[in-house]
Automatic annotation (TrEMBL):
Protein name (database record): MYO5B protein
Source organism: Casuarius casuarius (Southern cassowary)
Keywords: Coiled coil
Coiled coil: 2-102
């Protein structure tokens, strides 16, 4: 029991360390981005008002272009997934149709078998008719023997 607890504690410690490392990397990336933005801001303050507007527009165009590219990539992924799902749907539809057809065949065979059995029973009954031959005057004796 103690070993199990130690193993769980080590797993939690490892997960915590990995999470801390990930967060440190995110903080570093944010610091670098903030420094770049500060440098860009300081550069724009040194520019004339017209140049500041133009720089701002360029930044917005760059941001929109990147966002547009991300959306196109997402659209391509979704279209690819849609094609994959349509193929799977066709495969499953075919399997369902095959299954329904096989079920219909099985039911048809069962009906046919039941009809064959009924026909066979009817034939057997027909086969037995007329096998008993007797004279008309022996009929009361025959009926009495059948009853007993």
């Amino acid at each position: 029991f103690l070993r199990l607890l130690e193993a769980q504690l080590q797993d939690q410690r490892r997960e915590h360390e990995e999470e801390v490392e990930t967060l440190k990397n995110q903080v570093e990336a944010m610091k670098e981005e903030m420094e770049k933005q500060q440098q860009a801001f300081l550069q724009t303050l040194q520019l004339s008002p017209e140049a500041q507007v133009e720089f701002g527009l360029q930044q917005e165009i760059t941001r929109l272009t990147n966002e547009n590219l991300d959306l196109k990539e997402l659209l391509e992924k979704l279209e690819k997934n849609e094609k994959k799902l349509k193929k799977q749907l066709k495969i499953y539809m075919k399997k369902v149709q095959d299954f329904e057809a096989s079920q219909a065949m099985v039911q048809t065979e069962r009906r046919q078998h039941e009809l064959t059995r009924q026909v066979a029973v009817q034939r057997k009954e027909k086969d037995f008719q007329g096998m008993l031959e007797y004279y008309k005057e022996d009929e009361p004796l025959l009926v009495r023997n059948l009853i007993t």
